[in-house]
Amino acid sequence: MEKERFVLISYLSNYGGIETLMLRMVKWLAENGYPSMIVTDRERKTDPDLFRELERESVIKKIAFRGYQEFSAKQDLGIGEEEAPKLMVFSYPGYLIADEIRRQTEKSQIIFYDPHQYGLILEFSFHNRFLKKAAHIWGKRLARRMDRQHEIAYMDGLCMERTARTYGCASRPDLVVPLAMQIHAFDRKQAEARYERKAFHILTVARMEFPFKGYVIGLIGIFEQLCRRYPGLHLDLVGDGSNHRQLANRIRHLDPDIQKRVHWHGTVPYRDLDAYFEKAKLYIGMGTTVLDAANHGIISLPVGSYTYHCKGYGFLQEDAMNLGGIGGKTPMEGLIRQVLGFSEEEYCDCVKKQFDAMAPLYEIDAVMHRLLTWNNRGHASILGRWERMAIRLGRWAYRKKEAVKACSPRRCLESLKRHPRLFRLVHRAGITALRIPVLITGKMRAYGWICDSNTAALRAYQNSHLGERCVLVANGPSLLPEDLEKIKHEWTFGCNKIYHMFPRTSWRPDFYCVLDERYVERSQDEIFSNIQAPIFTNDVIYRAIRAENKKGRKILYSKQIRYETFKAWPNLLEYTYATNQGTVLSFVMALAIYMGFQEIYVLGADNTATAAGNHFAGHAEDKGLEAIQKARLKENGWNENHWRDQMELEMEAFARYAKNHGISICNVTRGGRLEAFERKNFDEVFP
Question: Residue range 656-682: average pLDDT?
Fold first, then answer.
């Protein structure tokens, strides 16, 4: 007898618990002779590594599911009208595709697998109060209909109970289908060998999306405390996500010695996780990876989600069905200390209890048998005619919205990049057109015909320090806290991440400059919590600062105007002269000249930076900025010495400007490669 086809419908957008579950399922189906297929929407972005890994195990069909009338199960998926495939979905959009397949092949069966406590709760996706209420009413109707037709399977009791409380669906043990996994046999020798290792590695694998996986931030804080008592402790973080910069920022604020013991490995394909499990002695996480770790003979502690406090639920064997709820109950620090204090016998017994608790629940043979024998054949669609019309209207509105986005100037320019000559022509024409109003309004500001609050504040600084001297503090590796102490009573300018030097000196800059939009978007909370001085920037950066950070702060901006080549331009009341290659020190230099300083000293400008730069001792750039800078180099075809050459070019332009206007600019940096200005000994100038 021919075995029925098993069809999984998912986005494949990232490595997560559902994606790894699908990987294990299609392997099992192939080994047991069941034909399988994975269906994904080709209009959504897929993770390339995950896609390739799944493609090796099964047939993947990418479809463009725009509407009911444009999709054919037979033509697009090769599913005949007489077939009776099982369609397993993990979200409402996936259910719509499955529902249309069922409409075209009457014998199909749908299983909506709920892997998350908010998986079936439709209003969770909306922020607008009206839409949230409407989604609750509609979601309740849909969930109850699916429940009556036996189309819902829950990952665990927590998912089932939350849906039952919210929507009034059934709450029965037979609806719980645990995550499927091939459970290994307990190996005591493996557990003993793991215990005997001197280094104690704590491992967590997570998608860095906060606050959902916010426990990672809390875990780093706990690790920081434990490191002071346990010298052999290490923390391995595997994963990436939309909040990777927040994570990088948290790691960067650790003491250098502790930082060395935090190992962030980024995204790792599922098949390559074995090497990290092999090294670990304790696992902290949620979902599938808790089972993966326990299956490798590691003590596993499920943790709570949607909180930055790292709290768990005890050891896995205490409630093997709980792979991490919301919030957590038990502080994780106490559980980690308990494991650190285990004897060899206690460690091995704990590992054995995990295997004994997992085997009857998660063994893949039993779980897959339940899914294959799941029977809800013969049911009609849960969607009525008016609901189908509403969905069709929603899809039409979404496509129109995306079409408008695609026609935006930024998107059009991106598409033109495939034609370099045309792109350069259009880009130059656009920049020239944008330049004209800035030039006109700049002259009007200079003559006092435009005088808004920012212009008035900026005008107050023009020549406000005429004839005085100042120090421009750059962030090079030669910068020393003791040198900053010597210039405490001078007028000084700081920029970018200079505040990382504050814990080591009582010096603070009188003026602060920032000129990198991506840096401000990523780190503005950090900037405004450390900098008290007036902040100078351009209008583009000013717009990127959130309203709560502007409140009560003195932030002045100059209008930005773009040119292809650099020119020393200190007339900031009119506009800031900017190029795609500019450095922040050129803006600081222009500001100092604008204020009237005529004796300018440059400190810490080593000009030894490559892709992401070298900074003062004890401070290294985060991974996010390094990746951005490398991407900029690649995108523009620049070599790794580009920033050095650009700095020299800009400073030479200011050296010529200073000579023509009777301004003295000297470089008092200890060493370095910047030779545009006359060199002077720092200790002689500032004894």
Answer: 91
